[in-house]
Amino acid sequence: MSQTVQETTLTAEVRRALRACGVDADALSGGLEARSPLTGEVLVTLPATSQEDVTAAVGRAAEAFPAWRDGPAPVRGNVVKRWGELLTEHKADLAVLVQAEAGKITSEALGEVQEMIDICDFAVGQSRMLYGRTMPSERPGHRLMETWHPLGVVGVISAFNFPVAVHSWNTALALVCGDTVVWKPSETALLCALGTDALLRRAVEDCGAPAGIHQLVLADRGGGERLVDDPRVALVSATGSVRMGREVAPRVAARFGRALLELGGNNAAIVAPSADLDLALRGIVFSAVGTAGQRCTTLRRLIVHESVVDTLTERLVQAYGTLSIGDPREPSNLVGPLIDERSFDAMQQALRDAQEQGGTVLTGGNRVLAEEHPGAFYVEPALVRMPAQTAVVQEETFAPILYVLTYAELAEAIGLQNGVPQGLSSAIFTSDQLEAERFLSSAGSDCGIANVNIGTSGAEIGGAFGGEKETGGGRESGSDSWKAYMRQATNTVNYSGELPLAQGVTFL
Ligand code: UN1
Q1: Active-site residues: which are they?
Q2: In the UniProt entry, which residues are flagged as the active site (predicted)?
Q3: Mutate to test the pocket of ligand 1, among 168, 465, 476, 477 (most ligand atoms within 8 A of CB)
Q4: Given the CA of residue 297, which atom of ligand 1 is nearest to it?
């Protein structure tokens, strides 16, 4: 262990959890620091993956691909099944690492690992359902059909806020689809990546699968660029900011690679006059404040009918007042820390901008526990009444700020909801079926996720996850997202003994 790491309850617990997942925690040392947003302390130091190592990792994944591709998909499913079993066995251990690095409260850290277990289940089933269709051919004695084939190496770039679940959405599907994976986790979530990788490595060994099918690289930005630019990487699946997506997408496009992007959200909920306000209140608070406002699905804008806005904001202010903020290991706390100081500064800047743009902070926004933890950034979630959807409201600030806007007519509310550059998640709280249907129709929400009487966050893995516009257009996780990890081939088989040409063309 390096000199900088002090032995504390947290570092001891993290090392125990790493060992339980199969990582030789005592052998770790190096130039990278894994820091905890809980206290600001360094948990472990560990070696960085150099840019050359990233290229070598892509090489190993590319080498493992043909044998993996050629095996039966349900046999590939066995590896994912075993991974799911190990994740179930080590759910609490991995959650300790998620909590230590992402700052989640215990139930959300456990919930994140549960998402991994669920997607493994889903992918195992999918391994027997990589369906292609057969279409009627226009020619006699011909069969027209499609088949789905493995794509190659998939590069997975994941973010700090769902540091392991989003990796598993991609990896569980990519593996059953016959692809191999190189994973670059967030630089602020290295330990939970090590734990996840160790469990997957064990599953690979237990099933006798090729060792190269999953490669973890603890790389910085330069290493990430290597991954993005490598022509052997058939698909780059990247989760993160719009800024990151703007850099990744053209680089991948320049070499005609595929990109699956899951970028920022600026999610809104409409609260209609007929809404059940008790239910709406709970849905709003969880979506706005859960994970300290650091989900890409976090509720950031509340569009409330003018007849209920005063009652609802009053109740929200009250509810915000009861939230306990602090060390997420403490079961009574519901709001953990922001990931780092930069994130805190961005929140403060957004609050200043909001006030300059005519907003009123109804509650929250202050840093707390600064004396106890000078290196950690705990904040009171903020509720801000805005006169209009101003510039700051149109941006995603990755912190717990909820802007409140009002509307008179549903069309106006939908206009506000859609009037931002991002298009991930959205919701309406209403008891009016006609309103709900309008919201879900093609003239309603323009987001990838549109919900009724439920908040914007906390999606199940069974549906496709992703959004439109600046959110990047990618779909991950459930439904038929698996198709992004495969290539489609169209096959025409002629068993007629003649050679009729399509479109009635005659030749020779
Ligand atoms: C993310 O924040 O990148 O729907 C993913 C949710 C979670 C996933 C969020 N199931 O909030």
Answers
A1: 262
A2: 262
A3: 465
A4: 11
Would you say the CATH fold of 267-461 matches that of 2-263+472-488?
Answer: no
Cross-strand partners of 377: 338
Please list, in sequence order, all residues whose beta carbon lies within 8 angstroms of the beta carbon of residue 322, skipping any fewer than 6 positions away.
none
Q: Among the atoms of ligand 1, which is closest to the Cα of residue 295?
A: 2
Fold annotation for 2-263+472-488:
Aldehyde Dehydrogenase; Chain A, domain 1 (3.40.605)
The closest alpha carbon to 166, from 475, 473, 470, belongs to 475
Query: What residue ranges do the domains of the chain occupy?
Result: 2-263+472-488, 267-461
What CATH number does the domain located at 267-461 have?
3.40.309.10
Choosing from 457, 471, 476, 477 the residue with most ligand 1 atoms within 8 A of its CB, the one to mutate for a pocket test is 457
Complex ipTM > 0.95:
yes
470 in Cβ contact with 263 (< 8 Å): yes
CB neighbours (10 Å) of residue 8?
13
Atom of ligand 1 nearest to the CA of 457: 11
Residue nearest to atom 6 of ligand 1 (CA): 458
Cβ–Cβ under 8 Å, residues 271 and 278: no
- Could you write out the DSSP letters of every residue in 414-434? HHHHH-SSEESEEEEE-S-HH
Question: Cα–Cα distance between 137 and 117 in angstroms, integer?
Answer: 42
Global model pTM greater than 0.80: yes
Task: List ligand 1's pocket residues with C-beta within 6 A.
Answer: 115, 161-162, 166, 239, 295-297, 457-459
Please give the chain's pLDDT, 508 residues, in tens.
Answer: 444 678 899 999 999 999 999 999 999 999 999 999 999 999 999 999 999 999 999 999 999 999 999 999 999 999 999 999 999 999 999 999 999 999 999 999 999 999 999 999 999 999 999 999 999 999 999 999 999 999 999 999 999 999 999 999 999 999 999 999 999 999 999 999 999 999 999 999 999 999 999 999 999 999 999 999 999 999 999 999 999 999 999 999 999 999 999 999 999 999 999 999 999 999 999 999 999 999 999 999 999 999 999 999 999 999 999 999 999 999 999 999 999 999 999 999 999 999 999 999 999 999 999 999 999 999 999 999 999 999 999 999 999 999 999 999 999 999 999 999 999 999 999 999 999 999 999 999 999 999 999 999 999 999 999 999 999 999 999 999 999 999 999 999 999 999 999 999 999 8
